[in-house]
């Protein structure tokens, strides 16, 4: 018989017991707050893109980089940090991640220009709080239903955060504030999340002794970073960007070889990359990328004012779009998305439990195709934009939650961090493509318009055309078709948990104990 000892209750355990909150629910609450602050720092800038360019003196490519830097940095670091956290302390690394978000937003608020702004956003990119929170959800959940319910709370938070994020910037500008004011608000929200997390987030760390796969960690970090940079800059860097991309792919091949031949790999590819998970990883990335691209398209379209160009006959057709709305008004176009995501958050957990992950994927992909086909055809009509974004909101609520559920269902007890790391690798890489892809499609069909240069002359300036936006919406329809294909490829895995980690304290074997 093996002698064991029960780990003493921590301060967090006692607080949760006093509040009568299950550990998995506590994690869900903080994960929802992390989503809230994460969406705020990512989405609030979308309707402010043009204003941010003016206030910080950014070019369109610099603005795109500011939006994309989170994915470029996170692609390599998120999976490494998530796996490292499992061995040291998921709670500690989660709190560090939230602290980085707070510090990064404060740095952006203080930034005088592009360089400091990019550094601040880069600091935020180092936060692995969200994948760590998902890993904690898995380790503290004891059933498929509790997992789906926790993820539904996170989805509901997305709806609230979208409303907050898009109205925040427009409201602050209307009352005389600036983009840096938005950064200060987001830093304050991050600080509040940090304090709540410190009070109620439980801890978890693996008790299994493993060597740290340094070679695998370095190869993954370097490879994914190069791939993300290469994809993000291949359009502007030309051959150099292509070479960076190829170098990244070569390093990733080396990483695969390393992972398949070490005893304790950074990510066990044989376990984490299967039909139960890979389509879900890709679907999670696609839903995230489509969300960013669609939000950029709708707000940019609404803010564009065609009136100054109506006196130029040859530009009346190509530039015949837009309503010249202020930021606060364009933000309202995104409210249907937020409303349906919020409503979905209260029901999607039960829906996935009842109809299954695969069927949920089918419905979400179909809704995506319908939503953006409607917007491609009827983009000049305000109602078409509102209805399309509402349908997309339902698609996002279902699809993104199902993607996370599929990954966590496939992870066994003690495997949450590893599966979450694998997921974040794919999702961050695909999500990092969103802003560059949007910019590439938009300006591929731009026209050169002579605008005042401030010195009495004019300078040719690239302005997107109506064809640019129509092509963006059709590209999103293609994204929906890809979702449908990967939904077909997905193989459902029943929840693999068995130990009620949420209800029992950790039991740690005493070294040297004999049978």
TrEMBL record:
This is MFS transporter. Gene3D superfamilies: MFS general substrate transporter like domains (1.20.1250.20). Coiled coil: none annotated. Keywords: Membrane, Transmembrane, Transmembrane helix. It comes from Gryllotalpicola koreensis. Residues 27-495 form the Major facilitator superfamily (MFS) profile domain. The chain crosses the membrane at residues 24-44, 64-81, 93-112, 118-137, 149-173, 179-202, 214-233, 239-258, 278-301, 321-349, 361-384, 390-412, 424-451, 471-489. SUPFAM superfamilies: MFS general substrate transporter. It is a multi-pass membrane protein. Pfam families: MFS_1. PANTHER family: BLL0718 PROTEIN, MAJOR FACILITATOR SUPERFAMILY MULTIDRUG TRANSPORTER MFSC. It is found in: Cell membrane.
